[in-house]
Amino acid sequence: MAEIAVLGAGMVGVATALALQERGHDCVVIDRARPGSETSYGNAGIIQAEAVEPYALPTSPLALLAMAGGARNAVNLHWPSLPGQAPALFGYWRSSLPGPLGRVIPLWRQLVSEAVPRHAALIEAAGAEELIRRDGYWEVHDTEPGLAAAVREAERKGREHGVPFSVADRAGLAAAEPALRRAPAGAVHWTAPWTCLAPGGLVDAYARLFEERGGRLATGDARTLQRAGAGWQVAGMDVKIVVVALGPWSPELLRPLGYRVPMVRKRGYHRHYGGTHRLTRPMLLADHSVVLSPMRDGLRIATAAELSAVEPAASPRQLARGEAAARSFVDLGLPVEATPWSGTRPCLPGLLPLVCPAKRHAGLWFHFGHGHQGFTLGPVTAERLARSIDGDAAAVDGLDRGVN
């Protein structure tokens, strides 16, 4: 019998199992699908060392209205779905105000600063170096005013947080990326992030490392979770401790146990294309809110956020707009998949992930709500959770808010 069951085999869940295993715990990871095949599979593949501030909503009503209207392709709204998300969205907006945001940033910045070192150790141990690039990504701007504003913002992050970057003007970017069909105004080159050729493949490599070290992966339904004496039973197994690391599915699992977790669910789409793009590194098209990521399966176009409670769109508008923008820059070629992939980012209104013990059930722990940064922060918060389970309550200070 395993001591701890981790529910969820994405980046957060697998990293949790590895962190607990390193501290001597016997763990099993339970999921309905293979490791790294759900939300962790679909991101842009960037370990975001430059993301020292959480993604906040605009606080200006005019900026919010522009975003709602589709400015920069940043958000696609399904209006009938908004009432159901309204309380969580309002909490998200309040946390984005200068005062609350300023209180969150120091802890967020510390978490992000630990991400590349944590991943580096796991990448080496898992033998996954062939999946990793260490040369950052481009933040591309079409216009001179847009580039100037981005440079000012990068300079601020450099002063306040020590984030390294460089700037390429029109000629510099064209020289660095000679395959571009047209030259935009320029780009900020964020130099610290690492990028990945197969995000799901990296999670799978971490899962294989977990198995090689004696851990067990099991296929099962997390919804079977129930109390069993002093412990828990799930997927036919009895365990002492359960860690819920199911990302956007976590609130539904916890509701029957009496927990209410407000969550903003941001759907993202991606699709691979088979053209000869020849990009040297990923490229964020800032004016179009899409990332072009060279990956093993082709050039991945990843979108920003769709707020919708209905089924994923067969022809998502944000992806179509992103594809049109991408074709103006590179030889995109034909889509590799017949239909786009879709996944949901679990964003908590407080802007921080939830990493803590349950208040009313001994042996139940929460580890989810990383929003856009589960791929980046999974190993970081996993290490803190493992320390907390072993008695270091201070390890998760500030990460225990957002559940009733």
**Beta-strand residue fraction:** 15-25%
Q: How many strands appear in the DSSP assignment? A: 22
Instruction: Tell me roughly what share of residues is in helical segments.
Output: 25-40%
Number of helices: 11
What is the global morphology? globular
- Major sheet: order of its strands? 7-8-6-16-17-18-15-20
Coarse structural class: alpha/beta
Taking the alpha carbons of the first and last residues, their distance comes to: 31 Å
Tell me, rounded to a whole number, the average pLDDT.
96
Largest sheet: 8 strands, mixed
Radius of gyration, whole Å: 21 Å
Sequence stretches where pLDDT stays below 50 over 5 or more residues: none
Tell me what you see in this structure.
About 35% of the residues lie in helices and about 25% in strands. It is built from eleven helices and 22 strands. The mean pLDDT is about 95. The protein has helices at about 10-20, 60-70, 80-95, 100-115, 115-125, 145-160, 170-175, 200-210, 250-255, 315-330, 375-390; strands at about 5, 25-30, 45, 75, 130-135, 135-140, 165-170, 185-190, 195, 215-220, 225-230, 230-235, 235-240, 240-245, 265-275, 285, 290-295, 300, 305, 340-345, 355, 365-370. With about 400 residues, it is α/β, with parallel strands linked by helices.
